[in-house]
Design a protein that fits this description.
Number of domains of chain B: 1
Distance between the termini of chain B: 13 Å
Oligomer: heterodimer
Strand order of the largest sheet of chain B: 1-2-3
Largest interface: A-B, 32 and 31 residues
Number of strands of chain A: 2
Structural class of chain B: mainly alpha
Distance between the termini of chain A: 27 Å
Radius of gyration of chain B: 21 Å
Largest sheet of chain A: 2 strands, antiparallel
Largest sheet of chain B: 3 strands, mixed
Order of helices and strands of chain B: EHHEEHHHHHHHHHHHHHHHHHH
Shape of chain A: globular
Helix content of chain A: over 70%
Shape of chain B: globular
Order of helices and strands of chain A: HHHEEHHHHHHHHHHHHHHHHHHH
Strand order of the largest sheet of chain A: 1-2
Number of strands of chain B: 3
């Protein structure tokens, strides 16, 4: 079975995405269990693949035995196994935890919902394992289409946000496809390894460079690189809570992974710096995104929107790491992909839990959160601290590697950006934490408290039911994700040494 | 000689893990407070048990897991670290007892969070003290910022929240500079395990790099040491409950900053390198200016805690200046001042807190005649004031003597006058309080028997620390051999035997 491992990660997801709605028509509840079982299976396959790659090196699988360049090849190397495992683990935690939220939000459409979730994950893992440029486009579109459809569930505003996402996302896909076409004209192959070999052997040509630019724009849109990020804030804010919790931690990360793949396995080393200044563009745009995202995040009232802008900021870090195009930069980018997936998963899951229990997600309305939902608030705090990059969370170490990588290239401005942005993230996140923990408690109706005014008047958390903390099926994934940001931070050297360094 | 031992890790783990126990006992205040004091005693016991080894030259050390390729979390009980660790863990004991009296006396809310954060802060402080390399130091230094934040904004008033923001902005900002510098050193491939000779010898001659590193690393530690113009978070943080001010000002945060200056200047850059580049002069002049300016500002403040805060700013820069002078005498004086100021200033804050609990007065001008009602408290205040002014035979006289001698020794006599002038100023902002307390009469304060004082839980700790300010001036080695540790560090600094 080991030989088929690369295919065994995305394909079950794809197959079950068709089966789930059928089963859902019979019994609504079944769809959830089918989805969880499938995701768990793919997670296990990813873990196995990672273990296998660490022990025996990269493995590849040719569909139907057709050898490339004729057939489609899937390759699982260190990086692919690593990213795929992160995506699947976060997805598993999120899907388990958002079950009840999805029941509320997707009444009567759960079969469809889980079908789309599986389709999305099939697309994302497909992007990760494929070694074929056109096949990557297919998976990119699969995941995007599932993404649009999921965002559409968010009511009127969700429709609008989803529509915008669809237009821009399709544009991104088109640019990517155009770029791949240019490459194909030049090289006559769609297989990544063959493309790399042919490009390495030949001089740089205008079509290849133009193709690189188109690919860069297309993937830049998918990874929400400033200024191609416009679809993201609305999509994250107005999508149903169960959906943005799933999309936010993993979707843009896979876009970033695809970008990284271009640097690692498609274009010859140095091509995207010396021949086309794409690395430089990534660094500059990434740095701008880091700062602008953080500043805009500070001004948001809705936490989901705040976290959306913070995603744009954090993706800037990944872009910088990729753009540096050095082994250290790649390590920093990959570590930050893991970091961001874990902490954004934690944060969005905490927000989902808050919405599930109280129905609010506005920053001013969070007073008393620390008292009434202590575990949720604690998990949110851990995620926030990881985002600020306080040691020993994994957030500190990704910034640490990025700082070293920047200094190595004498890019002092980038070092300053990394450092300043930590302060900016602290500013917008502690604004939330202050509110959650330290804001004056809402005035009791008959209490002797001085009547707070203005903003403080709206501070009471609406109370739904007697128990404030969500049930264990929400809390456990949340706590595990939060704990992972610390544990993996402490163990970062293990990850870097065994997975990231051999992979880059 | 370095011996592998779990003791340094245990000393840090006890308060850090104990905090969870405190948090779990939130519904049983008596048990919770017992645990808090027991933790303080246990931590002190662990730290003290490493002392004999350290003074004999057998340094206990623990190496934990790898934090970044080639850099481990490593802890080591070297003389400098032990000096700070012993001071912090020792002063935690009276503070823990005092806090109980203070928090209950004022019926403060959220006491569980307070005691848990307190234990975490002490744990992080010990981590700062015992860190064996720069990255481990940074790790605990950042954690300290985080753990003390809930203490600063304990009151949860608008003012407290604003102070908390300022505190975070300054200390996290400083921490980032420190991280930047540390990352750079990692890239240069320099092993930053603290060494008495410094570790940057290979950079000799590369002045630009040395200067840039100096700025990054020094800014990082100097923020917490509240050297002007990076000091303003400290007076703002006075809004916290008094035991926190005592912890922040005598034990944890500011001393971690000052201790960081020692680590960065002596153990990372090394005496020789700094002397060659002349980088020390910038820091020395900045610190000297802070000493005088902060003393002058202290004179102008009527709010007692604010006055004490500016006094702290001034005295911290004594230490920074002493380290920056790079001589063995000045360094001995600086380390002794770190200890002496700790015990002296904690007394002053304890007194201010006792007065606040008992009379709810916070301004110096309202304290006329208070000595009649609270004689023990004000006597301790008087002892501490004498020490602050550097009157013999108090502990801060001894340290100032070394500092002054060190200034002359380093051929930097102008700095001697800084010490003298600010000694006079210290007397100027503290003695009037004592004088008014005892010799002015006011109808509002009369001796009405013991209830006039705050509870014993507060009076005993402040009397003990007040007396220690005198006793350590007479026998500085009792019982923690502070002077021996300080001179050990000073003698070996620069790589000498």
């Amino acid at each position: 079975m080991t030989a088929q491992l690369p295919a065994l990660i995305p394909l079950p997801l794809l197959a079950l995405s068709i089966l789930a709605p059928v089963a859902g028509m019979w019994r609504q509840g079944i769809a959830f269990w089918l989805a969880v079982a499938t995701i768990a299976f793919s997670t296990a396959m990813s873990a196995w693949a990672l273990a296998h790659v660490i022990a025996h090196g990269p493995m590849s699988y040719e569909f139907g035995g057709w050898e490339p360049p004729l057939g489609i090849e899937y390759v699982v190397d260190h990086v692919a196994a690593f990213v795929s495992l992160i995506v699947m683990v976060v997805a598993l935690a999120v899907v388990v935890a958002t079950r009840r939220m999805a029941e509320q939000e997707m009444q009567g459409r759960q079969g469809l919902y889980y079908s789309l979730v599986l389709l999305l994950l099939a697309g994302l893992t497909g992007i990760v394992v494929t070694a074929d440029l056109f096949n990557l486009f297919v998976f990119l579109e699969i995941s995007s289409l599932a993404g649009y459809a999921l965002v559409f569930h968010g009511g009127r505003k969700g429709m609008l946000a989803g529509y915008r996402y669809l237009i821009l996302g399709t544009l991104g896909g088109a640019f990517y496809l155009l770029g791949v076409a240019f490459l194909y004209f030049e090289t006559g192959t769609l297989n990544m390894a063959h493309t790399l070999a042919i490009l390495s052997a030949s001089e740089a040509t205008a079509p290849v460079s133009a193709g690189a630019v188109f690919i860069f724009i297309g993937l830049g849109l998918k990874m929400a690189l400033v200024p191609l990020h416009l679809w993201l804030p609305d999509a994250y804010t107005f999508a149903p809570s169960s959906v943005n919790t799933l999309i936010a931690p993993i979707m843009t990360k896979v876009g970033a992974y695809a970008m990284l793949r271009m640097f690692l396995s498609v274009f010859p080393e140095g091509y995207l710096i010396d021949e086309v200044p794409i690395g430089q563009a990534l660094i500059v745009l990434g740095a701008i995104g880091v700062l602008v995202g953080a500043v805009v995040a500070f001004r948001q009232q809705d936490i989901r929107r705040l976290l959306a802008y913070s995603s744009i900021s954090q993706l800037g870090f990944i872009a910088i790491g990729i753009g540096l195009a050095t082994p250290l930069g790649f390590v920093a980018a990959l570590l930050h992909i893991m970091n961001h997936a874990l902490m954004k998963g934690t944060l969005f899951l905490a927000v989902m839990a808050i919405r599930l229990q109280t129905g609010v997600s506005e920053v001013p309305a969070l007073a008393g959160l620390g008292r009434h939902l202590p575990v949720t608030a604690a998990a949110f705090t851990v995620g926030a601290i990881a985002m600020v990059g306080v040691p020993p969370t994994v957030g500190f170490f990704s910034k640490w590697y990025l700082s070293i990588a920047a200094v190595e290239q004498d890019l002092w401005v980038i070092l300053a950006v990394v450092l300043v942005s930590s302060l900016l993230s602290a500013a917008y996140l502690f604004r939330v934490l202050e509110r959650a923990y330290f804001a004056p408690p809402p005035a009791a109706p008959d209490g002797p408290h001085d009547q707070p005014e203005g903003e403080a008047r709206r501070t009471r958390l609406p109370l739904l039911g007697a128990t404030w903390e969500p049930r264990v099926d929400v809390l456990l994934p949340l706590v595990l994700l939060a704990a992972a940001t610390i544990v993996l931070g402490v163990l970062n050297v293990v990850v870097v040494r065994h997975v990231l360094e051999p992979g880059t | 000689m370095i011996e592998s031992s779990p003791l340094p890790a245990l000393a840090i783990a006890v308060p850090l893990l104990g905090a969870a126990l405190i948090a779990a006992l939130g519904s049983k205040p008596n048990l919770r407070e017992c645990v808090s004091v027991a933790l303080a005693l246990a931590t002190l016991g662990l730290v003290a048990s490493m002392l004999p080894g350290t003074t004999d030259g057998r340094v206990a050390s623990t190496t934990l897991l790898e934090l970044s390729p080639g850099i481990n979390i490593a802890l080591r009980a070297d003389p400098a670290g032990m000096l700070f660790a012993t001071l912090a863990s020792f002063l935690w004991v009276p503070t823990a007892v005092y806090s109980i009296g203070y928090m209950r006396g004022l019926e403060e809310e959220k006491q569980t969070r307070f005691f848990a954060a307190f234990a975490l802060s002490v744990g992080a402080t010990l981590g700062v003290a015992l860190a064996a390399n720069l990255l481990t130091f940074v790790l605990f230094y950042e954690l300290l910022t985080l753990f003390t934040y809930p203490l600063v904004i304990h009151r949860e008033s608008d003012e407290a929240v604003r102070a908390g923001r300022k505190y975070l902005l300054y200390t996290l900002g400083g921490g980032l500079a420190l991280i930047g510098g540390t990352a750079w050193l990692a890239l240069l491939g320099i092993d930053t395990t603290f060494s008495e000779a410094g570790v940057l010898g290979s950079l000799a001659g590369r002045d630009g790099t040395v200067w840039a590193l100096f700025v990054l690393l020094t800014v990082g530690v100097v923020v917490k040491a509240a050297v002007m113009p990076l000091h303003s978070w400290l007076p703002a943080a006075m809004v916290a409950p008094t035991p926190v001010s005592a912890l922040l000002h005598a034990v944890a945060v500011v001393k971690a900053g000052v201790f960081g200056v020692v680590r960065v200047l002596i153990f990372v850059f090394g005496v020789d390198l700094l002397r060659d580049t002349g980088a020390w002069q910038v820091l020395a002049i900045g610190a000297a200016a802070t000493v005088v300016l902060a003393s002058l500002l202290a004179l102008r403040h009527d709010n007692l805690k604010r006055r004490l805060a500016y006094s702290t700013v001034s005295h911290l820069s004594y230490i920074v200046l002493g380290v920056a002078l790079l001589g063995p005498l000045a360094l001995t004086g600086a380390l002794l001042h770190l200890v002496g100021h700790g015990v002296t200033k904690i007394t002053l804050f304890f007194c201010a807190g006792a007065i606040h609990v008992r009379t709810h007065r916070e301004n110096v001008s309202e304290l006329d005649g208070i000595g009649k009602q609270m004689p023990v408290t004000m006597a301790a205040f008087a002892l501490a004031s004498l020490s602050m002014a550097g009157i013999p035979p108090f502990v801060l006289f001894a340290s100032k003597w070394y500092l002054g001698a060190g200034a002359v020794d380093a051929s930097a006599t102008p700095f001697l006058f800084v010490y003298i002038v600010s000694g006079v100023l210290s007397a100027g902002y503290l003695f009037p309080i004592v004088a008014r307390a005892f010799w002015q009469s006011s109808p509002s304060f009369t001796w009405s028997g013991w209830p006039g004082e705050a509870s014993l839980k507060m009076v005993v700790p402040l009397a003990v620390t007040g007396l220690l300010a005198l006793i350590w001036g007479l026998v500085p080695n009792l019982p923690f051999s502070f002077l021996s540790l300080a001179s050990q560090v000073a003698d070996r600094a620069g790589g000498g035997a």
